[in-house]
Amino acid sequence: MLVLGIETSCDETGVALYDDSRGLLGHALHTQARLHADYGGVVPELASRDHVRRLLPLTRGLLEQTGCRLGELTAVAYTEGPGLAGALLVGAATAHGLAYALGIPALGVHHLEAHLLSPLLSKPAPAFPFVALLVSGGHTQLMRVTSVGDYELLGETLDDAAGEAFDKTAKLLGLGYPGGPALAQLATSGTAGRFSLPRPMLASGDLDFSFSGLKTAVLTVVRERALEDAARADLAAEIEAAIVEVLVAKGLAALRHAGLKRLVVAGGVSANLTLRARLAIAARGRGARVFYPELEFCTDNGAMIAFAAALRMQLPAVSSQLSARAGGFTVRPRWDLETATQ
Ligand code: KG4
Ligand code: ZN
Predict the structure, then answer these.
(1) 124-292: which CATH topology?
(2) CB contact at 8 A, 5 and 309
(3) Ligand 1 within 6 A of CB of 195
(4) Which of 119, 122, 222, 228 is the most buried (most CB within 10 A)?
(5) Is any atom of ligand 1 closer than 6 Å to the C-beta of 181?
(6) How far is the centre of ligand 1, averaged over its atoms, from the C-alpha of 133 (Å)?
(7) Residue 214 in contact with residue 242, Cβ under 8 Å?
(8) Where are the domains of the chain?
(9) What is the pTM assigned to this prediction?
(10) CA of 297 to the centre of ligand 2 (A)
(11) pLDDT digits (tens, 9 = 90+) for 24-66
């Protein structure tokens, strides 16, 4: 089974080829970061137009690079949601067009499900069941994952996502877009503790998060006085420490709640090295293990879409519904993972 995966939910155009017996054959990515940098965030219309420009050349290049032919494909998978409507439509329309022309099925994939399953691409892969901490630019969720397609939401952010907290506070520090990696980089030369920021909902007793207060607290600090370089680095380190401390505490609380010892962390923020270091220490103390995607698959990419589709296609309920037919299709800019089950 050879699946072409297409990701266009936000500002990365990603394509990949996954074969269920040979594994990931290759992937290609075009990031739009520079396109949106001047605006300090993603401009949806520019994102859609760039996906239109990039998707087919990227796919052609991937086929050349892997030596695969379109005729060998079993299915074309694409991100159906959640994400930017126009951006999603580019991937969905391309996937359905290709699939129709080739006489094979097109399969819509939930973007968060793909993030959540992406650590299974690595070795050793976590066994089911596990707790997943999804930390992306748009979502922060804790899920109990019993098997492919069986997800129970344990907690989520009430306002900003962890990635959003990184991005918004980075903007307040005058760092470019996307802010997460830039803030993490600046934090390496600073020391947490010189500034004192809140750890939102750390002691709330549930598995929910709230990060918008952090942004307000940082705004108060930067408004009070101009910060010299060392102070900016210290503030960055404190911001990172505050976000990481909450994620670590809630991740471990979720393991306790679910009675499990395996924690999977996925989504863009799972690339954060401080989060990885802190989680390693905390998990060791509890006899738990933490699993991540490869660094290149933490942020949006086509590999996780092709892989999630290949896993879903093995579910009887999904495979029996797959057919190569022309017809309408839809995208789901808003879509709960719990409803995207088998
Ligand atoms: O999963 P992702 O690529 O896109 C969404 O599905 O939203 O996540 C992007 C988010 C952005 O907020 C970005 O700032 C954050 O992940 N991010 C990081 C790091 N790398 C990416 N945040 C903190 N540290 C990083 N190293
Ligand atoms: Zn994502």
Answers:
(1) Nucleotidyltransferase; domain 5 (3.30.420)
(2) yes
(3) no
(4) 119
(5) yes
(6) 13
(7) yes
(8) 2-116+298-339, 124-292
(9) 0.95
(10) 10
(11) 999 999 999 999 999 988 999 999 999 999 999 999 999 999 9
Asked if residues 320 and 34 have their Cβ atoms less than 8 Å apart, the reply is: no
- Residue 84 CA, ligand 2 centroid: distance in Å: 11
Query: Which CATH number is associated with domain 2-116+298-339?
Result: 3.30.420.40
